[in-house]
Amino acid sequence: MVNSRFSVAIHILSLIATTSDKSQLTSEYIAGSVNTNPVVVRRMIGVLKKAGLLTSQSGIAGYDLLVEPKDLTLLAIYHAIDGPEQLFAIHDEPNPACSVGQKIQRTLEGVYTSVWHAMEEQLQAQTLQDVLDQLRK
Amino acid sequence: MVNSRFSVAIHILSLIATTSDKSQLTSEYIAGSVNTNPVVVRRMIGVLKKAGLLTSQSGIAGYDLLVEPKDLTLLAIYHAIDGPEQLFAIHDEPNPACSVGQKIQRTLEGVYTSVWHAMEEQLQAQTLQDVLDQLRK
DNA sequence: CAATCCTGTAACTATAATAGTTACAACAGG
DNA sequence: CCTGTTGTAACTATTATAGTTACAGGATTG
């Protein structure tokens, strides 16, 4: 299991998308909903901001999405948080003198890339709006 | 990125499948090809053994596959090494008093499950024999 | 302008996962 | 009996993750 940053990012973006009262939307409030520390939230928001998904203003509460939820795919969010581009690590420097060791890295890369693409397709197919719809149910 | 155990497991199984001289196939030899410690290899082999993928005899070199490479899917190997059943962690105890916090876990589970299934399909579609064919090329 | 509340960020800490390592008991075979 | 092997437990080093403290600086209000 990778980590919970992707989950936290989606949670934060969902809150921003659904909270109308912007003065309420402080990092502390968000942290209360996510159940973490306000600094963790601000750190994550900094990353999402750099990726161009939202804006904020220093000293003033509230955040604004820069992309419509229906146009924001989960894959875009995943890329925004700079998640790993492969699922499985490949061990370093297998023995090149061995016929298996010599080719295993390239072979595994091929295998993992096909797995990765399948995952990307799924993330591409779902948007933040889909998540919001699920949350409202 | 999860870890390199899956890669190491596939490497080990490939070696066992392709090495005809069983007396050569010691944990030290395998470790030399993988570029790790013999104990790491024996530990992994213990896991694969428990899962019923191979046999070995204490004190005597060599291992035998119990499943034909063409019948051994990468998904079976993945399950054998007890890899995580989800790709992304979900943060603990979001605030149930918040409409987002209340439903985010279940929602994310749904999202991640669909991603997971796509990945499983890919791993199910490839066998150890496919890996061996790639290695031989 | 002073007080307060907020964001942004650096730096430190705690915890856990991962892999590597040492050590040794037990088995096999010459 | 000696050597080489497997099987495991226990310890260590390294790294990733998340949580925390601290504080500089912007915004708002009385």
TrEMBL record, chains A, B:
Ranges that cross the membrane: none
Pfam families linked: Rrf2
Protein name: Rrf2 family transcriptional regulator
PROSITE patterns (alphabetical): HTH_RRF2_2
Domain of life of the source: Bacteria
